[in-house]
Model the fold of this input.
Amino acid sequence: MRIPFLSERSEDEEEYTDRDEKLPSKRKFKDLKSEYRKSRKEPHRPWGNKERLFVALVLLSTIIASAIGGLSARSWKLPGLPKFKLPEFKLPSLTGIIGETIVIEKNDDGEKIASKADEITTRVSEITENLSGIYAFYLIDLDSDFSFGLNEDEVMTAASLVKLPVMVLMYREAELGNLKLNTEYLIKDSDKVSGSGSLSGKAEGTSVIYKDLVYYMGHESDNTAFNIARKILGDKETQDYIDKIGMASTTLTKNLTTPHDVGLFFRKLWNKELISVKSRDEILEVLTDTIYENFLPRNVDEEVMVSHKYGREIHVINDAGIVFTEKPFVLVVMTEGIVENEAEEYLPKVIKQIYDGWIH
Done:
């Protein structure tokens, strides 16, 4: 018996045989649902070249970043090694075309003083070459103007040495009639800056006069007095004054200077190029017998007076001033990126070496 709907298959249609694949059962359809599917673990694949390269680059970047951080904390100077510096690229100079300019610093005592200066510089270099960070000094003989140093043009953290031009500018503005040093000022809480000095511990409304601010900056290196004086004078006006007196590498807001700039400041202060003799002597007085006498004053002969400014921050110890021997001289010592306990041991040796080598 023929079944009609099966017998009427067109020629284009395939005939199904027993060999044809059977449709999946209902059970197999259920297995496709997520709730019936068994969890399985993907087989571990070994790292390819890309993964290995990526990990190597990450490790290398970490090592480089750590090295840069460590070097920068020591101002790119490691013990026993020269300071690391990037190569400098300068445009060609016309010096060779229009004639060479040679600068010779004044040297009234001739070869004897020059030889002494070379010996001091060599000894200081030998003391500090195996220490961390940068050690610098600059000395100016105030009688002859002869000067020499080690790393004296290095731009370094000024710490409280940056207070020096602010102190002088307060007196300068008073001499010009732009302010009065006996003007009263009431301390605000917003004026207070922690760190060195006693004014930050005073109650709000405590009265000081402008002249007191100079005293506190010099005698105690008071940060609050410095902050108030900057507000009175203005940062732009102060920086203009710094530039005007020739401290070309000194920046107030960045707290940067060089030993050369600080030495220049003291030379001009002593030579009455900045303020009057009376004002100069008052400033030198507040810079004498300060609360910070552990470095410059302690490492010269006991009877010798030193008017100086001390400054300290993390990895920085600076001291600079005028040493009043029979022939007075300016001495600036600065450090950057140092290890504190190392510097506390060796910086006095550096100062003693310079002092003894110069006056004896």
Observations:
- DSSP finds twelve helices and nine strands in the chain.
- The two ends are 138 Å apart (CA to CA).
